[in-house]
Amino acid sequence: MITYPSAEPAVLGAPLRAQFDVFLDEYRAALHDSLDGLTEEQARRSLVASRTTLLGLLKHAVFVEKVWFDEAVTCRPREEIGIPGTPDESFALDDGDTVASVQRAHRRACEASRAAAAALGLDDLLHGNRRGPIPLRWVYLHILRELAQHSGHADILREQILDAADASAGTRLTPGAPAGGTGGRGGR
């Protein structure tokens, strides 16, 4: 059974910042966990015309964390941080990218993001973005939107990958049936 900390009574009445943190961590975990139990080939499988793969989605999420919680907070350039210059480039997979290595990079990026934001208030301005000064509140909302979107992409890709694996094993899901154990977050 999937649980949602954001639906817990303590979170419902918590201050806005605490609610933001819980929602961010839910989506971070959903995207991270979308790779659990997959083979390297499955994680790299491309099912759409773009560069989008499950492994690429999580690698892009690492980029997003570093853009908004390193570049925007510290004003360091992307080259110094060690991230691509554009979002599109962040989906590109290297030969050394594995499920374990990208999940590890994601966990580290999320930990660094939490640490970078810990001393900041929602109305504090971040000066390292090309748009100019932006409040942390806007960054939280932007990342929530992005992580929710990519978590949805990951749900669909994972379901397709596992359904194909089930079909080749002769245990294809019936049309319209819930994809049990696929990482889907039904009931949201």
TrEMBL record:
Please name the InterPro entries in this protein's record: DinB/YfiT-like, MST-like
| Region of interest (Disordered), ranges | 168-188
User: Where is composition skewed (Gly residues) in this entry?
Assistant: 178-188
Gene3D superfamilies found in the cross-reference section: dinb family like domain (1.20.120.450)
Pfam name, any one:
MST
SUPFAM superfamilies linked to this entry: DinB/YfiT-like putative metalloenzymes
* Entry protein name: DinB family protein
